Amino acid sequence: xxxxxxxxxxxxxxxxxxxxxxxxxxxxxxxxxxxxxxxxxxxxxxxxxxxxxxxxxxxxxxxxxxxxxxxxxxxxxxxxxxxxxxxxxxxxxxxxxxxxxxxxxxxxxxxxxxxxxxxxxxxxxxxxxxxxxxxxxxxxxxxxxxxxxxxxxxxxxxxxxxxxxxxxxxxxxxxxxxxxxxxxxxxxxxxxxxxxxxxxxxxxxxxxxxxxxxxxxxxxxxxxxxxxxxxxxxxxxxxxxxxxxxxxxxxxxxxxxxxxxxxxxxxxxxxxxxxxxxxxxxxxxxxxx
Length: 289
Ligand SMILES: NC(=O)c1ccc[n+]([C@@H]2O[C@H](COP(=O)([O-])OP(=O)(O)OC[C@H]3O[C@@H](n4cnc5c(N)ncnc54)[C@H](OP(=O)(O)O)[C@@H]3O)[C@@H](O)[C@H]2O)c1
Hints:
Bound molecules: NADP nicotinamide-adenine-dinucleotide phosphate
């Protein structure tokens, strides 16, 4: 059993922190900017809620963060009242936010100055993956820190991998988002075409999902896409944040991402339709407008 702190109890963090307590059996202290969520978490799982990130992280062996973007992450780690103010030497900071590789390297250096380890550890698997404790976790870290943290991360994960040095976890998550962007647009076009052709979409997907076109998105999203339901899942605002990070990184490493750049603009169109919080599968709504 380790002493663990968890900062950021959103759609993802709330259940992840719950698994650290219930499945991992760890002693968990949480912090959330909106204090009522931390109180609800403590009530549900029986852990402790702290008033600031620094207070939650005091004496912890492992500190997890899962907030919105680079600036949010800086404010709860290296900012005033952030976890690096109190983390003890030898402890490890594990960040599950989807953020840039640059901020991961920056926090690795800031943590190292205090004798603290840092792992960038973004996740994939969505809300359901977090609730069921079966996330995929992509890590960038020093081997020794990774070896110490992996059994703790396992509490909410089905697959955990060390991808390379600090920043490599975020770069891997970028590849994940690149692969999803083009795929979802292809799926949206397929369903759109099928409807125009007058076919039974359920029947079409039942057959083609077992062939070479099958995917997680096809299995898990075709039904709601066919019904025009998008009020759930992974919000377009978050996806555009992720694609912005991807396109910035591609500008600096010279990768050509024409389809990703186009799909990012399509998501902009869906935001203009009012779909900021709609699931990423709502690319179909844009075709049907
Ligand atoms: N949702 C998904 O399916 C999914 C999948 C994979 C990865 N991710 C990534 O995981 C991260 C969290 O996503 P989520 O869906 O859990 O988001 P969310 O539900 O919007 O929760 C965000 C959390 O971060 C906190 N926060 C944001 N800015 C903060 C700040 N400046 N200071 C302190 N706390 C702050 C929020 O506190 P409040 O409660 O006070 O607002 C909330 O607890 C994001 O980077 C996202 O891209 C999400």
